[in-house]
Every structure is written in C-alpha cells, then in structure tokens.
Specification:
The protein is α/β, with parallel strands linked by helices. It folds into four domains: 114 residues, Cobalt-precorrin-4 Transmethylase, domain 1; 116 residues, 2-Layer Sandwich (Methyltransferase, Cobalt-precorrin-4 Transmethylase, Domain 2), CATH 3.30.950.10; 113 residues, Rossmann fold, CATH 3.40.50; 129 residues, Rossmann fold (3-Layer(aba) Sandwich), CATH 3.40.50.10090. The chain is built from 18 helices and 21 strands. It has a five-stranded parallel β-sheet with strand order 3-2-6-1-7, sandwiched between helices. It has a five-stranded mixed β-sheet with strand order 8-9-12-10-11, with helices on both faces. The protein has a five-stranded mixed β-sheet with strand order 15-19-18-16-17. Helix 9 links the parallel strand 13 and strand 14. Helix 13 packs parallel to helix 14. The chain is elongated and about 90 Å long. The chain starts with 8 loop residues before the first strand and ends with a helix.
Length: 507
C-alpha cells in the first residue's frame, strides 16, 4: 500500500525593500523551513544564507525584458513543487500584493488545490521614501496617498492608468517601475493638469547602502534622469513632502553611507560585524571564505568534554570553541553544575560573551586578545602554573604557541580539538560574484584562516580597496600573502574593528 504524499505548502513571502533589517521574523521562519526557495531579482540575496542545508534554490526573477521564467511557468513550478509535498517559499521584493503579482500566484495555487500562506512585507513604496527623508503622508501637506505603476502588461490593449485622475489627485503620488519611461509618464501627467513645478524624487536601490536619490520637478526630472544616467530599480515620489528631504534625510547622512564593505567571516558569525557596519550606513555584503565543521575525532573531543570537571582550568580561544564545547556538554549532562569547580579563561570579549550565553562566568580574560600574552597574563593572575591541569579547547588549525608556552610553565595540558575550518565552497548570497563585478572599498578579515582561504579563491583585489584586520595575528597572515593591513583597531575585537573603519573614513 502506497503511503499518501505529505501535503506541501507555498509561502508567498514579501522579502522587504532591500535592507536586511526590514525583513520580517515570519519571512525568516519561512526561509528556514523551506525545501524550495524561489526568489526574485529585487530580493536581498543575503536572506538566502538562512536556508537549511540541502534546500533547493531557484532564481525566477524578472529584469525589464529579461525574464528567467515567464509568469505562467513560475505558477506551474510552484504548484508542482507543492504537489510533490515540498515546503516552498516564494520570495518577492517588497510586499507580494503590492505590484508583485502575488495575487495571481495565490489564485493559481488555490485553483490547483495547493495550501498557501501570504506573508506581507514592507513595500518600497513607503520604505524607499522614508529612507530618503521623504514622508509619504504629512498633515501639513497631504491626507491622501496614490500608488501606481509606470509599467503595465504590454499585451493589454487599453491602459488602466487614468492619467487625468492621477494628475488631478490630491496629495502625494508614488510610482513604481517607471524610470525607463520617465519622459513619457511625466509628460502625460502635465498634459492632464499636473503642475510642472511639483517636487519629484527618485530613489534607486532604496533602503540599502547603494541607495541613490535624485530630486527635481515634474518638468525637469526626465532630463535629469538622462543627464545622470539614473537607472532602475527606483521608486518615484511626486508631491510636496519631497521638500522635507533636507531636514529628514537621516539615512544618507550616516558616516559609512555608500561605502562597500566586505565581511569574510563564516555565515554563522558574520551577522554582528555586518549589522554594526550597516548601522553606520555601509553597503555591507558577506563573502564567507570558511565554514566551521565538526572535528575529525569527535569521539575524542567528546571524551575530553565529559571529563572537563577534572581540570583546574579550561581555556577558550574563540566563540567557535565555546559553542562546540557546550553543544556536546549539554548532550552529555543536563545540569551546568556538572562542569565542577573548573576556572574558565576566555580570550577576547567575544569569547567571554559566548560563554556568558551558557549562564557561566568567566574567571579571567587577558587584556591583550592574542595568544602570545595569554600565558604571561594568566600566570600573573593565578600565580604559579606549575603542575596545573589545563584543557585547551581549540580549532584544528590553531597555532602551537599557546601549548608551547603552557608546557614551558610546567602545565599538565590536554588539547581538545573542538572544530575545524574548511573552505566555503558555496556562494549562495552572491558575495564572490559581486566582488568580482563591483569590488569594494574595504575588505575585512577577523582571522588568519579567513585570509588564507580568501587568497585561495584567487579573487582580484581592486586598486584602492582598503584591508581591515582585526589584530596582529590576522595582520601577520596578510603579510605572508604580501598584503598590507590599512586599518587595524587598537582593541582587537568586532566593536573595535567597526570603530576603526568608521574612524578611517572620518579622517
């Protein structure tokens, strides 16, 4: 007897206007749960890093006349995958029901008997103007908002755009997908009575660090588009609130606005650095060069974790080691007190913070976050280390300097290989492709292994691109490859790195 196929579902998800921070929590859940992700051109590809391993990724985007798949084929693709019992997440830029053809896809799914859910997203019609310092409503200017598209189905015999009504409508007007026809569209509006001196703003790549804003009037904006070579995708705002931009332009005034900064950390670790740089306005994108995997001898590591209470000291040199250690620890033990009276050392505030996530205190953090100073500072803190039992939780490729110095002090040392770093072979979010095509203003490195694996990718570093190194060990790795660190923080941690980059451009 054949078992029934597990019913699938399609999530029609609005992926927001571009800023990763404007993606909803529900959208993230749908991406994480998906067996299949089908995404559009305007979706920020960094959300694809949330996909689970093995999920199928399909690009179905549309750019002007360049369509990866016709709409009818997209509809059938979604239906077929759902009927196969798959969880399908259909990612659409902005909101799926605001000129996103989400309504059509939902109708087709309904007709085929496929379960679906609509996840609203923040539309660029409101987010784009907001990030350019333009409210779409303001009691001093308007009580009405008109949203329309400048691009219609070319097969339609009669336009559904009533330019007379749009031109005479009170309040602010927001138009999507009209940059390529700006002269024609503004001409029709003025021909039907719209004032040529009405303020207009175009916002390209709205809400991202690539954002560009062009302002003019209804009579001048088409010529300005040609003069500046202004291209799609862009949101057009027409109305009096455009005049508030000099006061309310908060986003483009941020200190790192428009600076293209590459983060090379692992996908799991990149978030803190990326978010910190984006908060300062940077156009940050991730190009992970390494990923973290289990150690070859997982059983041996597990035995050391099981016996951790027998040691006097545990030394953690990275957040990766902490995470790997406690993942196993809580599989072996149900009570954190099973760790016993062991004292914990953490190199760097990031490592200490990761330990604190497990509700454990750190007994010692060296002032300098480098291996060379660890042993000397620990000896000063603890007194003699002679005959002390120490468990050093480390990565497979960690340098031997810590072990050599501890053994020289008479320490009884065991080394627990908690993880290994391997080259990142996938470019899911398109970071490598973007770096090849566009380059960057700053290339950041937070570890020597990230440097080594980046160089193995053989990506050309463009002239003028600055290199930011988190500290001396990473800087030494750069020197081995003939590269110079232009930006090095005095505090060798992620907050210090962010501050050093901001200070560099402030100068």
């Amino acid at each position: 007897m054949l078992l029934p196929v597990t019913p699938g579902i399609c999530y029609l998800v609005g992926a927001g206007p571009g800023d990763l921070g404007l993606v909803t929590l529900r959208a993230k859940e749908c991406i994480e749960a998906a067996d299949v992700v089908a995404y559009d051109y305007l979706v920020n590809k960094q959300v694809l890093a949330w996909m689970k391993p093995g999920a199928e990724l399909l690009y179905v985007g549309k750019q002007a006349a360049n369509h990866a798949l016709p709409q009818e084929e997209i509809n059938q693709l979604l239906i077929r995958k759902v009927l196969e019992g798959k969880v399908v997440t259909r990612l659409k830029g902005g909101d799926p029901y605001v000129f996103g053809r989400g309504g059509e896809e939902a109708q087709e799914l309904y007709a085929a008997g496929c379960p679906f859910e609509v996840v609203p997203g923040i539309s660029s019609t409101i987010a784009g103007p907001a990030y350019a310092g333009i409210p779409v409503t303001h009691r001093d200017f308007n009580t009405q908002l008109t949203i329309f598209t400048g691009h219609e189905d070319p097969t339609k015999e009669v336009s559904s755009l009533d330019f007379a009504k749009i031109a005479q409508a009170d309040g602010v007007k927001v138009m999507l997908m009209g940059v390529g026809r700006m002269g024609e569209l503004t001409g029709k509006l003025m021909a039907h009575g719209a004032a040529g001196e009405t303020p207009v703003a175009l916002i390209r790549w709205a809400t991202t660090g690539r954002q560009q804003t062009l302002t003019g009037t209804l009579s001048s904006i088409a010529e300005l588009v040609e003069t500046h070579g202004f291209k799609a995708p862009a949101v057009c705002v027409i109305g009096g609130t455009v005049a508030l931009r000099p006061e309310l332009n908060w986003f483009e005034r941020r200190p790192l606005f428009g600076k293209r900064i590459v983060v090379t950390r692992t996908r799991a670790q990149a978030g803190v650095l990326s978010q910190g740089l984006r908060a300062l306005g940077a156009d940050t994108y991730e190009l992970p060069t390494i990923r973290i995997e289990k150690p070859h001898d997982l059983l041996g590591f597990g035995e050391m974790v099981q016996d951790c209470h027998r040691y006097e000291w545990i030394i953690f040199t990275s957040p990766n080691g902490v995470e790997a250690f406690f993942e196993l620890f809580f599989k072996l033990y149900k009570d954190a007190r099973e760790i016993g009276a062991v004292k914990i050392v953490a190199i760097g505030p990031g490592t200490a913070k990761k330990v604190a996530e497990y509700r454990l205190g750190v007994d010692f953090v060296p002032q300098k976050f480098v291996a060379e100073s660890l042993v000397a500072e620990l000896e000063e803190h603890a007194g003699s280390l002679d005959n002390q039992t120490v468990l050093w939780v480390r990565g497979e490729s960690a340098r031997d300097v810590v072990a050599e110095q501890l053994l020289a002090k008479g320490v009884i040392l065991d080394e627990a290989i908690a993880y290994r770093t391997v080259p990142e072979t996938e470019d899911v979010a398109g970071g490598q492709a973007r770096f090849r095509e566009e380059g960057a203003d700053v290339l950041t490195f937070a570890s020597g292994s990230a440097v080594d694996h980046f160089m193995a990718l053989q990506l050309p570093i463009p002239p003028g691109c600055k290199i930011a190194s988190i500290g001396p060990v990473t800087t030494a790795a750069l020197k081995r490859h003939g590269l110079k660190a232009h930006i090095v923080p005095s505090s060798h941690d992620i907050p210090g790195l962010i501050k050093a980059i901001a200070d560099h451009f402030a100068k």
